[in-house]
Amino acid sequence: MKTFKILILTGICIGFGVFVTFHWISFKAKGLTYDDIDTIPKNNVGLVLGASKWAPSGSINLFYKHRVDAAVALYKAGKIDYILVSGDNGRKDYDEPTDFKNDLVANGIPAEHIFLDYAGFRTLDSIVRAKKIFGQNAITIISQKFHNERAIYIAQHNDIDAVAYNAKDVYKTPPREYLARTKARLDLLFDIKPKFLGDKIAIK
């Protein structure tokens, strides 16, 4: 019985920690995510966070589609001059950055204004590499709001002046975001580094 009570108490403490972390990250990002394209500040580079183009059903992934639409809208509104797409290219048959580039070009974005980061395996990698590899100390992050808040939190920790443009959401915050934010907090606490760094790439 004593062991059971300890397990219950431990579960409650963990759940409380996850809950507090989730809302703390939202608080830290308050006022830095934008739905209105007219009011978002201009930055040289917009960072699109990766996503698979295709949903498990075989239809287009709406998270992906709305991020493409948001990046195109920002560029055409003159709110960014270049687009950096950061995503997973860890398998031979899977290439998020190139999928994004192809669809951005199809929507009228000049190819020479699109840069690809093939080592954006997760949000922390994408944010840190935007600074350490691509030399960006100020960026506009492009994703859904729940994701943008977490990305801004990571950017703040890495001394990056970040705002975010909220792509259209597909549904309310996915349950996994609670765990993703807790992991982000632990990653920063233990100073976890990106999987790869490498040579610097100038965006110009």
TrEMBL record:
The keyword Chloroplast does not apply. Residues 47-179 form the DUF218 domain. The chain crosses the membrane at residues 6-25. GO terms for cellular component: plasma membrane. It comes from the Bacteria. InterPro entries: Cell_Envelope_Assoc, DUF218. Keywords: Membrane, Transmembrane, Transmembrane helix. This is SanA protein.
